[in-house]
Write a structure and sequence with these properties.
Layout (H helix, E strand, L loop, with lengths): L1 E4 L7 E7 L5 E5 H9 L9 E6 L2 E4 L10 E7 L8 H6 L6 E6 L4 E5 L3 H7 L6 E14 H10 L1 H6 L6 H10 L2 H10 L4 H21 L4 E7 L5 E4 L3 H9 L6 H10 L5 E2 L7 E2 L4 E3 L2 E2 L3 E2 L4 E3 L2 E2 L7 E3 L15 E7 L5 E7 L19 H8 L4 H17 L4
Parallel strand pairs: 1-4, 6-10, 12-14, 13-16, 14-17, 15-18, 19-20
Antiparallel strand pairs: 2-3, 4-9, 5-11, 6-9, 7-8, 7-9, 20-21
Helix pairs in contact: 6-8, 7-8
């Protein structure tokens, strides 16, 4: 079973279209791309629960078919060289959550520490053979999942509290108590709270492993030091990785190959529009104007396309077209009645920091829009959007 760690961004559409069973083309969502990406591990994980980030795509360079050797395994990009102080520094491992693997294959996790501190924390693991940044995605066998559910039954029944896998499961299960307390203290957690939690997890681990020693407890799944990884979880990353479709280089080539992009223009009618050789245009129609360099667009119907901006879910039949300046972000938010409002921002604005603010050009904050729409029927809204799109598209004479 595969579960995606969903975020607010997972249903975002990307500027690449895929063909549906009825022959129509629709922009692929981030979540659909993640499902395509993560599905290659399914054959190796029968009877296990797999969890992947819902807004990140990666393509491994290491073999993706394997036989699980541990009750829990976590994905990471292991460096080819042993984790000496030089490698730790050169690779910037002090800036990441790092998975370290012993010569025997057992693994442990540390987070954002220098080489000397990491080696001290990982002393219980023995000789460290390889190490590298964690991707956060993991899989668990049925037995350890049942053990965790049993251990935290009271919290689950009461729906009380919040635990994250890295600091509350993997690290206390793989690090000595003092080292775990030191890490959690840096996160602002009281030492006694960390000590109590570590004792609890250690007791669960000892009981579980005494009855289930057929597999190790915690291991690593290497996706390869050369793996490509694209994050769409923030606006700046969403923008940068979408524009990567226009770039040259092995990383961009692999991204285009992943999405099935075989040409700069696909399934589009751009009429007399001048399209720059570097631009990518998919399933779009435009009547006039130009598409400049470093532009990626999909499923656009416009009198004249705009450039230098992020335009999302917009439908317009105005003579002036869609007016946007360089760096603008304009999103159309539609309700179940088919009424739309424009929500504006800038590429360099952090949505998290501006979550409660009403930005210039908006009548509501992002938080207010979220609360207003969080319980709406997405299927109904998507149907209304398609009706608007079809109506506007049919009015164009291209």
């Amino acid at each position: 079973m595969i579960v995606e760690k969903l975020s607010e961004n997972c249903q975002q559409k990307l500027p690449v279209c895929h063909e549906l069973s009825d022959g129509t083309h629709e922009p692929i969502t981030v979540l659909e791309a993640v499902v395509r990406n993560s599905g290659i591990y399914a054959d190796s994980r029968k009877g296990r629960l797999s969890v992947f980030w819902g807004d990140q795509i990666f393509v491994p360079t290491a073999p993706f078919r394997y036989t699980p050797t541990h009750h829990v395994d976590i994905m990471c990009t292991l460096e080819e060289e042993p984790p000496t102080a030089r490698v730790w520094s050169d690779k910037g491992l002090d800036k990441y959550g790092v998975i370290a693997v012993s010569g025997g294959g057992d693994a442990a996790q540390v987070e954002k520490v220098d080489h000397a501190t990491a080696m001290k924390m990982l002393k219980a693991l023995g000789d460290i053979d390889r190490a590298g940044p964690s991707l956060g995605s993991f899989s668990v066998g049925a037995k350890i999942l049942e053990a965790l559910c049993t251990e935290f039954k009271d919290e689950l029944d009461k729906k009380d509290g919040k635990l994250d896998t890295d600091p509350h499961f993997w690290m206390p299960l793989t690090l000595p108590q003092d080292e775990y307390i030191a890490l959690m203290t840096e996160k602002g957690v009281e030492a006694e709270e960390s000590r109590t939690h570590h004792v609890r997890m250690t007791k669960m681990k000892d009981t579980f492993m005494s009855a289930n020693s057929d597999l190790g407890l915690f291991g690593a799944v290497d996706v390869g030091a050369g793996a490509c990884w694209w994050d769409y979880g923030q606006l700046k990353l969403y923008t940068a990785n979408n524009l990567k479709l226009n770039e040259e280089g092995s990383d961009a080539d692999l991204l285009r190959r992943f999405f099935g992009v075989t040409a700069r223009q696909m399934n589009s009618d751009m009429g007399g529009v001048a399209v720059d050789d570097s631009a990518c245009v998919f399933s779009s129609r435009a009547k006039c104007g130009s598409v400049g360099a470093n532009v990626s667009m999909a499923a656009v119907e416009a009198q004249e396309p705009a450039g230098g901006a992020v335009l999302y879910n917009l439908v317009s039949d105005l003579d002036d077209g869609i007016v946007a300046g360089d760096g603008d972000v304009i999103v159309s938010v539609t309700d179940t009645e088919g009424k739309s409002m424009l929500l504006k921002s800038k590429i360099d604005v952090c949505g998290g920091k501006a979550w409660k603010s009403v930005l210039e050009g908006n009548s509501m904050s992002f938080e207010e829009v979220h609360k207003q729409n969080r319980d709406t029927d997405i299927s109904t809204i998507e149907k209304k959007r398609k009706e608007q799109f079809k109506k506007t598209s049919s009015s164009f004479e291209i």
